[in-house]
Write a structure and sequence with these properties.
Helix content is about 40%, strand content about 15%. The chain is α/β, with parallel strands linked by helices. It folds into two domains: about 30-115, Rossmann fold; about 140-265, NAD(P)-binding Rossmann-like Domain (Rossmann fold, 3-Layer(aba) Sandwich). The strands form three sheets. A five-stranded parallel β-sheet has the order 5-4-6-7-10. The chain has a three-stranded parallel β-sheet with strand order 2-1-3, with helices on both faces. Strand 4 (about 160-165), helix 7 (about 170-180) and strand 5 form a beta-alpha-beta unit. Helix 6 packs across helix 7 (about 170-180) and helix 6 (about 140-150) packs across helix 10. The longest helix has 22 residues, at about 260-285.
């Protein structure tokens, strides 16, 4: 693969291999990491994501529990299932697949998961700890990006990082992680005036807006590292990112493709977070 292209598949494979070895060590000590995934409804994309997670968990030797609930499931029923999993010592990570049916308040569900088992890193306590620079579970996509940058030899200290997108899942935690590594961080969004003038200052540019091809050559300065978080399915059925890859490739020093870039890292970091949760439980006598 072109040396410019950050190969998320290969880095993900390395991470999962490392996690698998550590899972075996922990199992020898009598603690099997366990991940529970709850799927409410029958959204095909969500079902596909859950299936992929289940296969990965099993491949790494972890305990897997998948709870499939009907589309008409009530909020109280889902909260009851989360409460059960919070109290189950065999489960170290709980993930509720989003989006949820309209009768269920997503934030209430996220807040009901024990922060100690919140391997998605979405709970307000973990979000607050990240903001304060304390040890916390971090959302898997931005955490995966940080690992990609590190393993690709990208130095962040003193660099200007521009994050396009301000979601709680990617944009905000991404900015905090970059800041912790001594980057100077600018966050852009839909109301940013003259976006190209801001993004063109970036040494590291992270695009996480969910708009196909929004970032093109005019947004990127020569030699920038470009991380594309977008996953957009075009009319032809193909997956494309937020970055116009072909236009930006000649000017970027490093760039992630879609597919095969950030995407594979998200599941790998979910496995890593689950392992870490099990380690903590083992140290505290909860496993």
């Amino acid at each position: 693969m072109d040396g410019k292209i950050i190969d998320g598949k290969e880095i993900s494979r390395q991470i999962k291999e490392e996690v698998g070895r550590e899972v075996e060590r922990l199992k020898q000590d009598g603690c099997t990491p366990g991940l529970a995934v709850i799927l409410v409804g029958n959204d095909p994309a969500s079902a596909s994501y859950v299936g992929s997670k289940e296969r990965t968990v099993k491949a790494l030797g972890m305990h897997s529990e998948v709870i499939r609930m009907a589309e008409e499931t009530s909020e109280s029923e889902l909260l009851g299932e989360i409460d059960r999993l919070n109290g189950d010592p065999a489960i170290h990570g709980i993930l509720v697949q989003l989006p949820l049916p309209k009768q269920i308040d997503e934030q209430r569900i996220i807040s009901a998961i024990s922060p100690d088992k919140d391997v998605d890193g979405f709970h307000p306590i973990n979000a607050g700890k990240l903001m304060a620079g304390l040890d916390a579970f971090v959302p898997c996509t931005p955490l995966g990006i940080m690992v990609m940058l590190e393993r690709s030899g990208v130095s962040l200290k003193g660099k200007h990082a521009v994050v396009v997108g301000r979601s709680n899942i990617v944009g905000k935690p991404m900015s905090m992680l970059l800041l912790q590594q001594d980057a100077t961080v600018t966050i852009c969004h839909s109301k940013t005036a003259d976006l190209p003038s801001v993004t063109k200052q970036a040494d590291i540019l992270v695009a996480a807006v969910g708009r196909e091809g929004m970032i093109n050559k005019e947004h990127v300065k020569d030699g920038a590292v470009v991380i594309d978080v977008g996953i957009n399915r075009g009319e032809d059925g193909k997956l494309r990112g937020d970055v116009d890859f072909d236009a930006v490739l000649p000017v970027a020093s490093k760039i992630t493709p879609v597919p095969g870039g950030v995407g594979p890292m998200t599941i790998a970091m979910l496995m890593s977070n689950t392992l870490e949760s099990a380690r903590r439980a083992f140290k505290e006598g909860r496993c």
